[in-house]
Amino acid sequence: MSSLSVWILTLGLMLATAVPSDPPRDPRFQTKIAEAVASVVRQDEEAPAAVEALRQLGDGEREALLLQLALYVAAAEGTEQSMAGALIAQQLAFTQSEKLDAVLPHMMTAGPRLRRAFTELLATIDRPEGGDPDFRTYEERITKAKEAPPDPLILYMFEVSPDAALASMERVYGSNAAEQRPRPRSVAELRVLLLRRGASPAWTERERDSARAALDGLARDPGWWRRLYAAAVLREHPELATPEITSRLKSDPHPLVRRAAKTG
Amino acid sequence: MLLRRPPCYRGLCLAAALLLASAIATEASAATPGEATDLVVTGFDAATGSLSFTYIPACSAADHHIEFGALEDVASFIYSGQVCGIGVSGAYTGFDPGPGSYFFLVVGDDGVGTEGSYGTSFIGGAHLERPEDTNDPVCARVQDLTQRCDGPFVPTLGMSAFRPVTGGASGAAFQRREVPESEELIPGAGIRANGDDDDADGRPDRDDTQVSGENDLIEVVLTVDPPIPTTGYEYVLSRTSASIRVWSAPTKETDLLPGGSDVLTFSSSTRTVWVECPAGGSSDLELVARSVSDGAIVASERVHFYPFTSVVIALGGENQVPADPPLDPANHGTFQLAITLHQRGYDVHMYDEDVVPSSGAGAAFNEVASAVQRRAVTRVAIFGYSHGGGSTNDLARRLDAQRASIGAFSIDFTAYVDGIDNDSDFDVDPETQLPPTTGFHANYYQHPGCSFPQLCGGPVAGADLNVNVTATPWGAGLTHFTIDDSPQLLQELLDLVMSHVVP
């Protein structure tokens, strides 16, 4: 059994048994964060000092500080706490690397609200000016661990934008000799169909058949990231699912595909 | 005792006067009785002093009773006694008021507590209802002539239309809110053209007869009193054009007016129907009470329906959950404004701003696209607070970019209230971009210097209205967290929406 297959098996077991569970809230950080937020909401003169105290507390453990801030924002109530938390995060000027290191270890097990905070933090990396995401910034990190890519990051990418994620995966994995194949025509066909449906959710019979044929082809593709793309598209367009495609993806040999198919 | 077979005039018999009246049959609040007629004394037993008489019972009477008084009081209708429960046979034997001369009359009643007409007499130069007996020494009855079966039938009709409740993917649900009486005809009740597909069955809802999840029909409560019209009359519901249809349920079910007009029955005083506008166009819905024989209308009620030609999208600030009533009434100004516009007859859809990602896609975009493509909507208004302001721009940009596939529409109005760019929940940059192609952009922001810890919107180049509230007498003390609740600001925004957006 190769190390890759052992890894896949381990991850598969982890994914199958994972129950959402947020990391614990650290009172040291939470108290200081709450003080800083309250100061910002009051717009008082002590806010800079409160943020500075927070910065010093996180000295040497910036990822922990950011994680605790994400936990605070995830539990925030109202615009006041949310926006003050965001303002404090901006003042603390976390780097991309700090954000990824804080988020990725907990991404798979986070509850829905924390996961939302995580995805919004990552959005500050891949969509700093909004619009469509640009995942190129993650490709170096994925390429470095090509055989054991950071699954939370890949799932996040496919969740945010299947098209942009697929493009990234093609750049990273598409040149692999073992898995190199011409990009399936079905991807282009599917994109055209999905784009056309962008402003109208109604499918014609012909469009639906074409889209399903394209998805069926992708679900059989040897490249796992293309099968993952099919699962991600189905999550966004469940009306395109067929029992055959769904069954195939849910029993896919790759755990990420299975997970995406099961949570779709 | 002076009792003999008396001559009668209009139910009043001289010497021994007989006044005939009718009573009320009140089963299920049906029409109340009118006057019993043709009173004739048929016999007098000189030995006992009792007399017999016949009469034609009053319509709708469940019983009758005798009212009598001393003959000298006949002109003033002073009653001194009663005989209760003489039935409805139209004949009675054994009436003996006692020694002396009397007048008497027969009054119909419901057998319980309500009596009908005592008939009329020439009183003070006019034919008027004879006064009722208010003393009721034996059988207590209260007169009710409001719906008498033999009188002019003047029922009370009511028709209440409600604003669309919306809900589901179309935004947070509004409270069930009645269109004010003063607005039922002008401007009327707004209604969505029902070309969308709420049950996702691949067919426009207007082509279905049953639609689960339908949220485009307008509730109308019909009220009639009495529920059962007097014999010879009927209640009729009709529409003035085929632009509306009337269904039995919010999910459609039975078409109540397939021919445009039909007689309606009521099992109680109210009945709820649901109005659909299949494809646009105005129409009135009218409820009338009319004579069966000649169609003469004796009462009517009407509501005008106008199709919405616009949608208004309201986007709250971060972590503000839209609801009606607002979950935090003093702190959710955006939704207060949305609710006010809903009250004023706009098709409003209020969302958590997170439904609009920075790409502009999502539920709010789908709602607008669906409105344009399937509900004949041609105008769009969007406003939002804080991140909702950023999402306003994101949504407007996507709508503009997708015009070719959406169809023809204009963005008539946009507004930011201290707008913050919404590229993510952690974005704190001011939203300063002008929404593309907006017909009128209002930008309210506070700007007390805006270094940390202040969070500020900012001026928008090209906006039709830029208001730095910090520089106004009414907004100098506002912060990012309070600006959206300023009564002055909310009133100005309301006025702006109403002056730039046609419902």
Radius of gyration of chain A: 21 Å
- How many separate domains make up the residues of chain B? 3
Q: Structural class of the secondary elements of chain A?
A: mainly alpha
What distance separates the N and C termini of chain B? 80 Å
Largest sheet of chain B: 6 strands, parallel
Low-confidence stretches of chain A: 1-17
Number of domains of chain A: 2
Largest sheet of chain A: none
Uncertain spans of chain B, ≥5 residues at pLDDT below 50? 1-29
Q: Cα distance, first to last residue of chain A?
A: 30 Å
Q: Sum up the overall morphology of chain B in one term.
A: elongated
β-sheet strand percentage of chain B = 25-35%
The radius of gyration computed from the alpha-carbon positions of chain B, rounded to a whole number of angstroms, is: 34 Å
Helical element count of chain A? 15
Written overview of the protein:
The complex is a heterodimer of chains A (264) and B (503). Chain A is an all-alpha fold and 264 residues long. Chain A folds into 2 domains: 27-126, no CATH class; 136-262, no CATH class. Chain A is built from 15 helices and no strands. Chain A starts with a helix and ends with a helix. The model of chain A is unreliable at 1-17 (pLDDT under 50). Chain B is mainly beta and 503 residues long. Chain B contains 5 helices and 29 strands. Chain B is elongated, with a radius of gyration of 34 Å. Chains A and B meet through helix 2, helix 3, helix 5 and helix 7 of A and helix 2 of B.
